[in-house]
Amino acid sequence: MRNRFLVSTAIVGAFLLPAESLAADGVQLKISGRYYAAAGAALDQDDGPGESGDNTRDYVFKQDVEVHFRGETTLDNGLTVGAKIELEGQTSGDQIDEVFAYFKGGWGEVRFGDDDDTIDLLCVEVTDASLIFGPDDPELNFSNAGVNGRVATNETCREGDATRVMYISPKLAGFQFAASFMPDDTQDTRNTVAGAGTRFSNDAGQNSEQLSIAARYGNEFNGVKLDLGGAATWSFDRENDIAGVGDFQVYNAYAQVGFGNFKVGGAFGYQANVSSTVDNIDWMIYGVGVTYGWDAYLIGLGWTRGQYDIDSSSDTDVYDVIELTASYKLGPGITLDGVLGYNNYNEDNNNDNADYSNIEVGAGFSITF
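The structure corresponding to this sequence follows.
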């Protein structure tokens, strides 16, 4: 309770400061972002009539672009105040990705607005060598498993923007924690929506009243780097739950160890009651990877497995992704990337058309600024 009081006092106090406590330069605008691009191919894929690869190209050009606008200032009392807007660089149904304000100081950081929850904020994926490729939620991939299957790729770190309030602690002796809360599972909250100034509470199946907590520990001992963490999200209200589905829950954990030129890491993710209409539909994803780096080069080998419940029966789909990734640091913020991978999706409900496998190859680059 005392910590919550101190954080609240810091925020309120920022608005009550006398004029001489304000920063002389005002809020300064900073622009950053990323440009990811690649050419890739799906070789030897299941592309018979009705199969996941049917009527799909064997090769593709892709890009993923974001521009970030940040307005920030540090007041004379040391409090940093700012707002961040992330704009998708391509036409998208969610053109503005994340947008939030923040207040931070020696006591930590408070955010308010559309942002991923803490389970994603402090999450670390299965170790790989590329910013754009990898077996765990890659930015760009070349698999058509999602056409008839449950998912296109495995993901241990669940993402999901919504309007929430979040607290992020400072790092203390390698430890850090964060917590967030959101009233309902929506974003872009403005004023009145469909006549309701406070949102409707009977949206069928919506996962509302969500609390997320996360913790992370990182340190180095005699040249060995250790990174551990885990998180959980609980939704306490599945709105208008006619089907009697249990509350949505998410859990994850990860560990990375670095020594010399090597890094080894594994991750685990679990989502309970994913469906809004059928009870006990759970997803479990886990994997492990290793990288080796020298000079400007980095190579990695990683594997993930996703287990996806289909319905209320015991049927479970299994999706394996194995990828060899590599990157070369061309300059600050610029890398050349490559991938050679194998994807195998096994459907467990006698639907042979959902079974899918392929060999994927790709080359690309990343520019961060």
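The chain has one domain: 40-65+116-190+206-368.
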